[in-house]
Amino acid sequence: MNYPTIEDAVGRTPLVQLQRIGAAEQAARGTVVLAKLEGNNPAGSVKDRAALWMIRGAQARGEIKPGDALIEATSGNTGIALAMAAAVMGYRMVLIMPEDLSVERAQTMKAYGAELILTPRSGGMEYARDLADKMVAQGKGRVLDQFANADNPRSHYESTGPELWEQTGGRVTHFVSAMGTTGTIMGVGRFLKEKNPKVRIVGAQPAEGARIPGIRKWPEAYQPRIYDPAGVDEWVPVLQDDAEEMARRMAREEGIFGGISSGGAAWVAQQVAAREAGATIVFVVCDRGDRYLSTGVFPA
Q1: Which entry of 24, 205, 215, 300 is 20 to 30 Å from 267 by CA?
Q2: Can you give the residue ranges of the Tryptophan synthase beta chain-like PALP domain (predicted)?
Q3: Is the pTM of this model over 0.90?
């Protein structure tokens, strides 16, 4: 008998309806808000999908083989997912991450056996990405490059999008996602638009001054190459306080313990729901809130 492996546990995550936040007003207008629980993936985030697809894709193309060193700049979740996938598939994983990101995420990467390089907070993800490129040029490994790798959005086109279509019975009218590497919103958006061009794709971006892990607005020189603005119908800016408060409310009122970017996406979904009637709005709970306990966002 062939039993499933940890790789087989990636995807097919639950889709659940919010029961309390805005529910009465939404029910009166025939609108529902649904949360895709990506924290249920084995390494705890939506990035499990992209990590698996990127390594498998590079292997299939003969670009890498087990035993090789892989290098990636990451704000956390992609690094954790890649560390998990590399452990299963036999790769050495070197992760480059800004030093101010949460302790839990760094410790989790190390638990999977990854080597971690911390970069100055002042340099942000841009510095980390530049260092990854420099290390590749020095022959220290290969970058999968979540920001330019077509296997990132492909993972969502081939898995997340079809799951959402099936789980909603094709009734989804709005898809809301945090925008970081943009792999999720690009892949899911493309799939849903092919199924129904009327589906609205809504991106959550940080408001001026907000620093929300997993939600980014990139300088032009660092814009992810996988990103096509034509694939997004609307961009909604999210304040730091709104994202954090919604993350707390999701845990207290809905029993959904997600991270700060998930709070941002949930906040945007509520803004969309407030103006729509007869809508089925889906947003992504990108990861689990226990990765942010040391940040002080959740009360001790």
Answers
A1: 300
A2: 6-287
A3: yes
The highest-confidence range among 68-82, 113-127, 160-174, 205-219, by mean pLDDT, is 160-174
Given 36, 47, 75, 155, the catalytic residue = 47
- The per-residue DSSP string of 149-186 comes to -THHHHHIIIIIHHHHHHHTTT---EEEEE-SS-HHHH
| Active-site residue identified among 102, 159, 177, 261 | 261
Q: Kindly tell me the sign of the dihedral angle through the C-alpha atoms of 207, 209, 215, 220.
A: positive
Nearest Cα to 168, choosing from 204, 202, 199? Answer: 199
Which residues are 98's β-sheet partners? 119
CB 284 within 8 A of CB 184: yes
261 is catalytic: yes
Give residue-wise pLDDT tens across range 8-55.
999 999 999 999 999 999 999 999 999 999 999 999 999 999 999 999
C-beta neighbour count of 294 within 10 angstroms: 15
Contact, 215 vs 184, CB < 8 A? no
Catalytic annotation on 294? no
